[in-house]
Design goal:
By secondary structure, this protein is of the alpha+beta class. It has one domain: Calycin beta-barrel core domain (Lipocalin), CATH 2.40.128. 17% of the residues lie in helices and 36% in strands. It contains 3 helices and 9 strands, in the order ααββββββββαβ. Strands 1-2-3-4-5-6-7-8 form an 8-stranded antiparallel barrel. β4 and β5 form a beta hairpin. The longest helix is centred in the N-terminal third of the chain and has 14 residues. The radius of gyration is 17 Å and the shape is globular. The termini are far apart.
């Protein structure tokens, strides 16, 4: 029995790095400046997942912690229950510090990949992020809307990269989040 438990633990530990990897054929942005990426981003579009299902007015705020990790604060409004929902996690860079790859955890020692695969390098005004596989995709912006031209360019890039862009959920932003108010 102990041998089986050790084998199961070993297999689990061996599978964890795969949760943070970059999907085949994709490259995280280079010359990434984490300091410029910090702050609040609004979710413009996403692929559906249970942890965000039904949420509107979704934002993510990234802040440097004293220990050098990054605090990740995700918030969204749950219209069905008329309340704000929040999840706080932590992140740390993967690989070279100037590469747009992080590993993010909301659940203890378990990390998932967060890979910036497109970025408005001039203003850091919009970004596209993939998870560890093509089932995870987010289009983010510093404002609650982006121009149709930028939106279309990101969707075209996502389609060319093998994402199911027909399944994107376009996030409504009609409420003011009290946590983000000055």
């Amino acid at each position: 029995m102990q041998a089986a438990a050790r084998l199961a633990l070993l297999l689990l530990l061996m599978s964890l790095p795969g949760c943070t990897g970059v999907p085949d054929g994709l490259e995280p942005v280079r010359e990434f400046e984490l300091e410029r990426y910090l702050g609040t981003w609004y979710e413009i579009a996403r692929l559906d997942h249970r942890f965000e299902r039904g949420l509107t007015d979704v934002s993510a705020t990234y802040a440097l912690r004293e220990d050098g990790e990054i605090e990740v604060r995700n918030r969204g409004f749950e219209p069905e229950k008329q309340r704000w929902k929040e999840a706080i996690g932590r992140a740390r860079p993967i690989g070279a510090p100037d590469t747009g790859s992080l590993k993010v955890s909301f659940f203890g020692p378990f990390y998932g990949g967060y890979h910036v695969i497109a970025l408005d390098r001039e203003r850091y005004g919009s970004a596209m992020v993939s998870g560890p596989d093509r089932g995870y995709l987010w289009i983010l912006a510093r404002e609650k809307q982006i121009s149709p031209e930028r939106r279309d360019a990101l969707v075209d890039q996502a389609r060319a990269s093998g994402f199911d862009v027909d399944a994107l959920i376009w996030v409504e932003h009609s409420r003011e989040d009290p946590a983000l108010s000055p």
